[in-house]
Amino acid sequence: MKADFISREVNTVSMTMEITPEEFENALNKVYKENKHRFNVPGFRRGKAPRKIIENNYGSGVFVEEAINEVFNENYPTALDELGYEPVDHPDIDLGDQDIKSGSGILFNIKFLTSPEVKVEDYKGVKVTVPAAEVTEADIESQLQSYAQRNARLITVEREARLGDTVILDYKGFDYEGEQFEGGTAENYKLKLGSNEFIPSFEDQLIGAEPGEERTIEVRFPDDYPAEKLASELVKFECKIHEVKEEELPPIDDDLAKECSEFDTLDEWKEDLKGKLAENKKQQTENRVKNEVVQQIYEDTIVDIPEVMIEHEIDMLLRQFDQQLGYSGMTLQKYIEETQTEMSEFREQIRDEAEKKVKTRLIIEAIADKEGFTASEEDIEEELKNMGVQYGVNAERMREIVGEDIKYIKKDICAKKALTFLAENAEVEETDFSVSPAEEA
Questions:
Q1: pLDDT, tens digit, 9 for 90 and up, residues 349-367
Q2: Bridge pairing between strands 153-157 and 234-248
């Protein structure tokens, strides 16, 4: 096989791949051996007729088309490796008017779309500003309070319910015609006021209720409520409050330290929490630096992305979303039906996200290539170990599962190295401004 590069116009590459007569003959023999059992030839048991006999009976070209596919599929990946290209879609193949038969070679004229050439400049020394990673006493106290909150106990109180209290109640839901609706009834239900567990205003109207009190409240279901019969409807709930309970937090002391940690004293526990918080803040800062640097490079870089790459990314996002829905017993198709959205419309809604993911990936890969990052065997082994932990297998088995997709793992490793490189070469300024919990997440 001989591969030759012809030209590249934007993202379309033209090449030729020449197959020798010997290579094509080998492909014909392989196809014959795999398919000879399909032919019934008089005088021969099925699968025992020689190739020439089958060709005489069924035509000289009986194996040619499959042999062409065989020889193409076998040699095309090698040709691409030799030329250093990776297609992003199926190739267009032109055989012209060649008379392809046993004893002849083949010249494949091939065109395919490839990843765009990305020119990244000024990616070193990008200036970013991030929150200071210092751990404060307030940070430690906040952690201790969260542990105390998780270990709080509910005690019954004889007073009116307040925001944050838990009420034990019965309730029955009725529509405005007075008909009790399905799913709107419960007994001895435990509800924390302010948890937003119920539809808007339900919990608010229970604030001030006392043990033993019966109270009727009115609420309107949201427009997008899953049960169509109740969506946008104004309904009534008849409620009876049995108990009001408030949270009693345990004292933050040595006993709590023993309960929630491996330490015997509060001081030891605080020191451990400080170290863990420092490590978490360091990691958050590093991630924020990476994100900020990539965002700036993203905005300064123009990439001509083939539409097919965006479509493939949309397909990937849809598969991931379908998998996530599966955890709650839902499917993507069911979701589309219930939200009354056309699939084409839903695809369009996530197009911007898909395009951003593709462009970001291409930029990071371009930087990795420019800096000459590679994935060593040690890097690959470590990555396979980490992946194996998730699937409960060892690195060797994970390598078997991954198979030819190991090339994507190598790309991921190089991308991680590029991100670390960008962060290490950024000009980072720390400030005292705070970040929201959502930003930290």
A1: 999 999 999 999 999 999 9
A2: antiparallel
Contacting residues for 176 by C-beta, under 8 A, at least 6 apart: 233, 234, 235, 236
Half-sphere exposure of 36 (CA within 13 A, CB side): 17
**β-strand pairing of 12-19 with 106-113:** antiparallel
In angstroms, rounded to a whole number, what is the distance separating the alpha carbons of residues 282 and 425?
16
* Whether residue 131 has pLDDT greater than 90: no
pLDDT in tens, 209-223: 999 999 999 999 988
CB-CB contact of 37 with 22 (8 Å): no
Q: For residue 79, what are the CA distances in angstroms to 8, 75, 87?
A: 16, 6, 12
Q: How far apart are CA 337 and CA 277, in angstroms?
A: 45
Distance CA 122, CA 314 (A): 30
pLDDT at position 327: 87
| DSSP assignments along 147-211, one per residue | HHHHT-EEEEESS---TT-EEEEEEEEE-TTSPEEEEEEEEEEEEETTS--SSTTTTGGGTT--T
Average pLDDT, stretch 74-92?
94
3 state SS of 124: coil
Report which DSSP code applies to 90: P
